[in-house]
Amino acid sequence: MLYVVSDRAKALIQLAEKGLECLSMPDFFHVVHELIKSYSLAIGRHLRQAHQDLKHAQEALARCQERPHAALDAPEATLLVAARQTEVSRWEEAHNSYRGYLETLSLTLHPFHIADSAPQTSAQVPSHLQATVAAIEGLAQCHQLPVRHAAMTKVRKQLPDLAAVVDFWWAGVRRDVAHAAISPLWQRWAEEALLPRVYWEHALR
After folding, report:
1. pLDDT at position 34, please?
2. Where are the extended beta strands (E) located within the chain?
3. Are 42 and 136 in contact (CB under 8 A)?
4. What does the alpha-carbon distance between residue 116 and residue 138 come to, in Å, rounded to a whole number?
């Protein structure tokens, strides 16, 4: 059993499907890279700017506190520091949420569900991937980041093909099980108990 992973160049897809007569799937790296280009850098810029603004506000407050004649400006400077700290917290939360969504994407593309290790198919995986991508778009909209319709459309189009790796994995398992000629009871035990344990141990390594 073979499959080809590519950046979705037409020539490579044709090579897989017609030349090698095998499954062609998008590269998960390129899908994530598209998301990073769309929003990660923008979130990072806002976070860096928020930290710089907070630093300048704190320095201004320190100068007010050091000069007795500038005491009248201290309340305003204190309020500015609080506002800048709120902005830092806002962008730190956005940054952490965004990284969490990217992690969720990578943890979704497995033959077992991350929460309970239940077997999953390529029919189930795309809905989880689509939900995570939608959450990323919602985060971007909430923080008024530039809309990246073209990039997100490109990402969405690749999700069903990306999920095909799950069915490919299970096809290999069932082929091996057929060769082993084990009973349905032992087959169910292998799929629900043995394989998840072995798979996640390997993934962790």
Report:
1. 87
2. 3-6, 23-26
3. no
4. 27
